[in-house]
Amino acid sequence: MTNKRPRISEPPKEPNEPKDHTQKLLETLLEKLALGSNDTILPHPDRYYGDASKFDLFWISVKGCFELAPKQFNSQRKKCVYVGTLLGGSALDWYQSIYDVDTIMNSIDLFKESMRAAFDDPDKRRQARNKLGNFVQGSRPVTKYAAEFARLARLSEIDETSKAFLYEKNLNENIRDELIHYDIPEKLADLINLTIKIDSRLSKQRRSPASRKQEPIGSATKKSFSGKSAPIGQPRKR
After folding, report:
1. Along the chain (238 residues), what's the average pLDDT of each consecutive run of 10 residues?
2. Are 97 and 124 in contact (CB under 8 A)?
3. What are the boundaries of each domain within the chain?
4. What is the distance between the alpha carbons of residues 63 and 73, in angstroms, rounded to a whole number?
5. Quick one: CA torsion of 65, 70, 75, 80, rounded to 10 degrees?
6. Who's near 167: CB < 8 A, 6+ residues apart?
7. The pTM is what?
8. Residue 139: CB partners within 8 Å, gap ≥ 6?
9. Spatial separation of the C-alpha atoms in residues 94 and 99, rounded to whole Å
């Protein structure tokens, strides 16, 4: 006789509704996982019920939990099981269907991609990619341009090199002119940090003409993406 895995129940709708054994186990697991490093309370993402529009936000919250408590999430399976405790409705039904599939339950990346195939909206990736090609900085400060670009880039799921290329390409000319003095970072996040610093310095110069006599942007040294220091003004590598 084979042992069947107990069905994972939905959270009770009413506070006074009796809890079954599985629900109590799930709550106990959540309580144990709630203690991160230094015994700080780890907040849990809102329960996910299968809404495509909330898929990415849910996974951003989950990723934050993994980063806040790495000792608690020290295996791929623990991460997958934890996510399973945060599911409800059709998402919980999906989780029950893959619970015994070891190749999925032992890889958080496969788990996420399988879940994406079931609930995410594939059309939003196409729409984001179309927007990225025509999304220029214009009158926006770099901070606002970068924030919206990063959002579209995340939705588009294009590779990191393409993200950085499009981001630089659609910056205003004055920012691109300053980038001539730098090796362009390969990662979008590093490129965003660099251009925000450049834009901030240029803004200060526009507000205070006297500051134009100050030292060039970036101070005395800069770092290429190889991690080595190099003098400012050296032509970037092509």
Report:
1. 44 44 53 50 84 91 91 93 94 94 93 91 84 91 92 87 93 94 90 93 79 50 43 42
2. no
3. 22-119, 123-210
4. 11
5. 0
6. 146, 149, 153, 188, 191, 192, 195
7. 0.52
8. none
9. 9
Instruction: Name the DSSP letter for residue 220.
Output: T
Q: Can you give the length of the chain in residues?
A: 238
Q: Are strands 229-231 and 221-223 parallel, antiparallel or unpaired?
A: antiparallel
Distance CA 198, CA 205 (A): 11
Query: Distance (Å, rounded) from C-alpha 238 to C-alpha 234?
Result: 12
Tokens describing residue 128 = 């984001």
Give one DSSP letter per residue of 39-101, joined into a string: G-B---PPPB-S-GGGHHHHHHHHHHHHHH-TTTT-SHHHHHHHHHTTB-HHHHHHHHHHTT-
Helices (H), the chain: 21-33, 55-68, 76-84, 89-98, 102-105, 108-119, 123-134, 142-156, 160-169, 173-179, 188-207
Helix axes 123-134, 142-156, angle to 10 degrees: 150
